[in-house]
Amino acid sequence: MVDKNRNLVVISAPSGTGKTTIVRHLMQENKNIRASVSYTTRNIRPNETNGLDYVFVTVKTFESMIIQNMFLEFANVFGHYYGTPTKETLEALNQDYTLILEIDWQGAEQIRLKRPGSLSVFLLPPSKEELKKRLTSRAMDSTDQIELRFQEAIKDIEQYSYFDRVIVNNDIESTCEEIMSLVNSPHTTKPAVSGEALAVIKSFTELGGEKI
Ligand code: 5GP
Fold it and tell me: Which CATH superfamily is domain 4-36+97-205 in?
């Protein structure tokens, strides 16, 4: 039997690393790739479309979906629920799509347990200065939210060792190329974490409560 889990690719990254751009690019370049649309209870942003970026629901609806076991994984991130719907995920895998789940490390942990054989990629920003710049310049969130996201980035990065591959997102093309080479040959002998990635990780984990 073909292992459908192999077609499931988890991509996690601290907020502001550019993972949405990467996922969009992967889909544009590879017709066999789809991205899962998560459910969330956070507010819709002006540039987002309900049903396309997320399915935006109330806490009541989300909690009733949890009870009905409708999520493959779910987590509370930045004080809001986010979850991957099971039905749509299985449908995409059964149609032989490679399905990307753009989820946080808590969700990645659940997928690792539930769907062994799936792949997981952790994206890093090129540097902490660059992450601060990206978080501040996109101006989608309040100052408090930006600070919260920067502090969360440090916690996220501490989870890097659980992922199959850690990639520094220096530019879209090379990051997508590396993800595709992992998808196409998951058993490569390439190390999961490069020296460059380790240096970025170290710069964050040695921060000791630095503020943005
Ligand atoms: P944002 O609010 O910026 O769109 O996403 C915030 C965080 O939630 C990101 O780290 C994103 O990857 C994560 N996230 C989005 N959808 C899901 C999901 O379905 N499950 C989990 N566990 N995390 C998600």
Answer: P-loop containing nucleotide triphosphate hydrolases (3.40.50.300)
**Rounded mean pLDDT of 11-17?**
94
Q: How confident is the model at residue 145, as a pLDDT?
A: 79
Residue of 100, 104, 151 to test ligand 1 pocket, by largest number of atoms within 8 Å of CB: 104
Predicted local distance difference test score (pLDDT) of residue 2: 58
What are the domain boundaries of the chain? 4-36+97-205
> What residue ranges line ligand 1, CB within 6 angstroms?
15, 38, 42, 73, 75, 77, 82-84, 102-104, 106-107
Residue bearing the CA closest to ligand 1, atom 3: 15
Q: Strand pairing of 8-12 and 71-77?
A: unpaired
Which ligand 1 atom is at minimum distance from the Cα of 13?
10
Q: What is the dihedral of CA 91, 101, 175, 33, to 10 degrees?
A: 10
Give residues with Cβ within 8 angstroms of 52, minimum separation 6: 37
Structure tokens at 10: 């988890």
pLDDT tens-digit map of 124-156:
999 999 998 998 887 666 788 788 888 889 999
Residue identifier of the C-alpha nearest atom 2 of ligand 1: 42
* In the chain, % of residues over pLDDT 70: 94
